[in-house]
Design goal:
Largest sheet: none
Structural class: mainly alpha
Shape: elongated
Order of helices and strands: HHHHHHH
Number of domains: 2
Radius of gyration: 20 Å
């Protein structure tokens, strides 16, 4: 999940839980209600300054706001871009996975 989506979901849940409106949030941010609507629909990308403002309004840290639920549950995720195109890269990835599993004390190799 993209950071923008994580933040949007958390802000919407927070607004509902706190019984706050888009208009209220717009006033806190110093922007129009329509801009807040576009941002919370995912039609506009949040800038880092806006994410910091949202975290402050919500009373949490920026790190807490951008952190996914999977990360909160102490689950490590790794995203690899591209593909393994040759035998050497496949062996190196297998070696890395083995080292990680060995370090963590896991019995089965993750595939």
């Amino acid at each position: 999940m993209k950071t923008n989506d994580i933040v949007i979901n958390k802000v919407i849940k927070w607004l509902v839980a706190e019984n706050k409106s888009y208009q209220w949030l717009a006033e806190q941010l110093g922007v129009s209600k329509s801009l807040v609507g576009l941002v919370l629909k995912g039609e506009r990308t949040l800038k880092s300054e806006r994410i910091e403002q949202l975290a402050k309004i919500m009373g949490i840290t920026t790190k807490e706001l951008v952190q996914s639920e999977a990360t909160k549950k102490d689950q490590l995720t790794v995203n690899l871009l591209g593909e393994l195109s040759n035998r050497r890269s496949k062996r190196e990835l297998d070696s890395l996975l083995f080292a990680i599993n060995d370090y963590l004390g896991l019995k089965e190799q993750v595939k």
